[in-house]
Amino acid sequence: MDQQQRPVLYTYFRSSSAARVRIALNYKGIDYESRAVNILKGEHHSAEYTCLNPGGLVPYLVIDGHEFSQSVAMLEYIEETRPSRRLLPSDPARRAYVRAIVGAICCDIQPLQNLRVLKALPESQRAEHAAKVISSGLAVVEQMLEKTAGLFCVGDEVSLADCCLIPQLYNAHRYAVDLARFPHIRAIEERASALGAFRRAHWSRQYDCPKELLAE
User: Which of UniProt's keywords are assigned here (predicted)?
Assistant: First the structure.
């Protein structure tokens, strides 16, 4: 296993799942190569990509001679092999709280409003469906944060929960979800968005982002 080889992240600029991994890699100072897979052009279904990743999804991470699908598995591997700048608390209960928030986002919100689901709906219904799913899911997360939040999702340190929450908020803004009733979420978004690891991971700063959407 060559841990000196530069990790490769197959990504798409607007994928919230890919953004979770970008944030974690950035936060831990891991230099990596991004390789864009354009979902709108169907590149995730190409023979070249499905040969690498049979699931045909992004992200896909090649690291330390291993290849991983599923963003949460990637986050756990990055944390376990690069323990500096922890993204999981040392306390078992706090770790469980982090994982519960991660699950609420990655299992209960994001899969129900991703592109595969939206494409199964009439175009006229897609935005409304996405907004409803995101809003109801974030309401649950907000209640969780009432018990766990400090400066960030669980206490005062950045965790995997923040890595997952902030990209989900990209979609919330895209579908005009009113975040006014989620004060904990709004405060965490403001703090996290001020950190370089999160700023660099934003979809508008990715090299495959269309020029007209790039951040200035």
Answer: Isomerase
Arithmetic mean of pLDDT over the chain: 96
- Cβ 106 vs Cβ 72: under 8 Å: yes
- CATH code of 92-199, in short, is 1.20.1050.10
Structure tokens at 12: 């798409």
Tell whether the model's pLDDT for residue 110 goes beyond 90: yes
What residues does CATH 3.40.30.10 cover in the chain? 8-85
Higher pLDDT, 5 or 144: 144
Return residue ranges of the chain for CATH 1.20.1050.10.
92-199
Dihedral sign for Cα atoms in the order 189, 193, 194, 196: positive
Instruction: Identify the CATH assignment for 8-85 out of 3.40.309.10, 3.40.30.10, 2.40.300.10, 3.30.1330.60.
Output: 3.40.30.10
- Supply 141's token pair: 């997360």
**pTM, 2 dp:** 0.95
Task: Convert the pLDDT of each residue in 34-91 to its tens digit.
Answer: 999 999 899 999 999 999 999 999 999 999 999 999 999 999 999 999 999 999 999 9
111 pLDDT higher than 70: yes
Closest-CA residue to 170 (of 128, 119, 113): 113
* Terminal CA-CA length for the chain: 40
